[in-house]
Design goal:
Elements lengths: L2 H5 L3 E10 L2 E11 L4 E5 L6 H8 L7 E6 L2 E2 L4 H7 E4 L11 H11 L5 H11 L15 H12 L6 E5 L7 H16 L3 E6 L2 H7 L2 E6 L2 E6 L1 H5 L16 H8 L23
Parallel strand pairs: 3-8, 3-9, 6-7, 7-8
Antiparallel strand pairs: 1-2, 1-4, 4-5, 9-10
Helix pairs in contact: 4-5, 6-7
Length: 274
């Protein structure tokens, strides 16, 4: 990479358009992603997120506009772009017949890297999968499979990684595990472009957020900048009904909402106990 390339954004998208027959999916998309940052592309299903990732990863061509990844034009230098990136799709691409360690060794060999076993062991340790390494991937939880999938995508140390809906179908604990993994990637200097439809995911992870709606970026910026687009919410006080927990604590003598046991309250007139 030249000095000029190093000074450029890791990803630059200018005026990208894409249609499939009569369906226009992308309508002039523009944004930059700085190196070593997490950029969240936020949008509902059908907004065009996956189509854009496929263009940036050279799987399909844009109808118009330009895009560069790691300083290389995706249309003019697709080979250089592929060497610079890794793509993790919506579903984990692990081989469930193989162990976690064997999955990593296989990818390292396919990339013609030296010491595949050492690379596998390093990644297992990095992603807290050392103990699970000898087990078949079919025995892994959803979060472990996704972490293994991301570990596989990092073989060869690509400077840019695309994570397309990485937590789709995962339970809350598995999502947290993946979030921690993504944060570790950025801390190590990897540039992450993350597509998601989950608002909390973008809030937790992203340095920059772009909202993709009907094929265009309607707004982008930091979380704080986006929040400033709307006025603060007005707080209104309403009567709070007691919860079942309040009732239980009150009836068992642990104190109700007011800190008293209703059994100790005065008996209303005409309601004396028999």
């Amino acid at each position: 990479m030249t000095i000029d390339q190093a000074l450029e954004p890791a990803i630059r998208v200018l005026g990208i358009e894409k249609s499939f027959k009569d369906l226009q999916v992308l309508r002039g998309v523009d944004f930059d992603v700085q190196r070593g940052s997490i950029f969240a592309l936020l949008g509902s299903n059908g907004a065009g997120k996956t189509t854009l990732v496929r263009i940036l990863s050279t799987l399909i061509k844009a109808d118009s506009g330009t895009a560069t990844v790691n300083g290389f034009d995706v249309a003019e230098s697709p080979g250089d772009v592929r060497e610079s990136i890794s793509l993790t799709g919506q579903f984990a691409a692990v081989d469930e017949v193989l162990t976690g360690r064997e999955n990593l060794i296989l990818i390292a060999r396919l990339r013609h890297l030296k010491n595949p076993a050492g690379i596998a062991d390093d990644l297992l340790a990095r992603f807290s999968l050392t103990d699970a390494g000898p087990r078949k991937a079919s025995t892994y939880s959803g979060g472990m499979r996704r972490r293994l999938d991301i570990a596989m995508s990092l073989i060869g140390n690509p400077p840019v990684i695309f994570l397309d809906e990485p937590t789709t179908g995962l339970d809350p604990q598995a999502r947290i595990e993946v979030w921690q993994t993504v944060k570790q990637l950025a801390h190590s200097g990897t540039t992450v472009l993350l597509t998601t439809q989950y608002l909390d995911e973008a809030e937790q992870l992203a340095d920059q957020i772009a909202i993709l709606h009907q094929g265009t970026i309607v707004q982008h910026g930091t979380l704080a900048e986006l929040k400033r687009l709307l006025p603060p919410a007005k707080v209104e006080y309403v009567e709070k009904q007691p919860s079942l927990e309040d009732v239980f604590l009150a009836l068992t003598g642990e104190g109700g909402p007011s800190g008293t046991n209703p059994a100790d309250s005065p008996v209303p007139a005409g309601k004396e106990p028999q």
